[in-house]
Design a protein that fits this description.
globular; 9-stranded mixed beta sheet; 270 residues; Rossmann fold; 11 strands
């Protein structure tokens, strides 16, 4: 092995050791998610300038896209966002909808999408984007169990994010988690979203409820893990705990007998 290569590897190992030795969660710059229980477990919120992973099964790709869009909205509300997608992701789950992302609260004018031919190209593009400190976040979306996304690749992305201050969000669909240097790792599934009560007359789709996620934190470098039902508020662009009764309940009129008593009267009359 050449002297130059040995020196480079030693420098890289030293950088990684210093990064991984920095274990105080309170020293990290963070952004709150809005969900009180999740923010408490994360010691104040999601760490910026770090790598975060979101995993989902293949049929949950739309759910995972919505969840990571919410994370991106919290991390990078006013700065450009680069979304790198492997071609196969678009084949499997379709193109990103700008109108849909706008409804989630993201500004499409600040979004740059990049289609990569394969995993290697996607990794190179994401690494280049992370080096640009003008960005707020970089989303790297890869479908399937890509062998290239190993511990070495994860460390390189973590170092790039820490150096530039740009947050990396990895969206992994139809893949199994592997060892990495990610700050957090999430597994997301769709949760029940009670319909809202739109004013009449209204189109049927206007009654759709807010996006609700079953979000399981399975890795947290600085604390415990947990699992929560998290609702995304598209207007305020934050996660929150869903209301137990999202729709108003009509009170029983005071001048009318209880329903059971009314039915009993009908039975006696019959």
């Amino acid at each position: 092995m050449s002297t130059a290569r040995t020196s480079t590897l030693a420098s890289l190992r030293g950088s990684i050791e210093r990064l991984e030795a920095h274990g105080d969660a309170h020293d990290l710059n963070k952004i709150t998610l809005g969900h009180k229980a999740a923010d408490a477990v994360l010691h104040g919120g999601l760490a910026l300038a770090a790598v975060h992973e979101v995993f989902a099964e293949g049929h949950q790709s739309a759910t995972a896209t919505g969840f990571i869009a919410g994370l991106a909205g919290r991390v990078s509300p006013r700065r450009p966002l680069v979304w790198v997608r492997q071609d196969f992701s678009e084949i499997e789950s379709g193109a990103l909808s700008m109108s849909g992302l706008a409804e989630l609260g993201l500004d499409p004018r600040l979004l740059v999408t990049v289609r990569a031919t394969d995993t290697d190209a996607a990794l190179r593009t994401a690494a280049d984007a992370l080096a640009c400190d003008a960005l707020g976040a970089v989303v790297l979306e890869v479908w399937g169990q890509a062998r290239q996304l190993d511990l070495v690749a994860s460390r390189k992305l973590t170092l790039a994010a820490a150096a530039s201050g740009v947050t990396a969000l990895l969206l992994r669909v139809a893949a199994e988690p592997r060892p990495s240097t990610a700050e957090t790792r999430w597994i997301v599934r769709a949760a029940h979203s009670p319909p809202s009560a739109p004013p009449k007359p209204a189109a049927p789709w206007s009654a759709w409820g807010a996006p609700v996620f079953d979000a399981q934190l399975v890795r947290n470098r600085h604390g415990p893990v947990g699992r929560w039902i998290m609702e995304w508020n598209c207007d305020e662009r934050l996660f929150r705990e869903p209301s137990a009764y999202p729709q108003p309940l009509a009170a029983t009129p005071a001048h009318r007998p209880h329903q059971a008593q009314a039915f009993a009267g009908q039975r006696r009359a019959s």
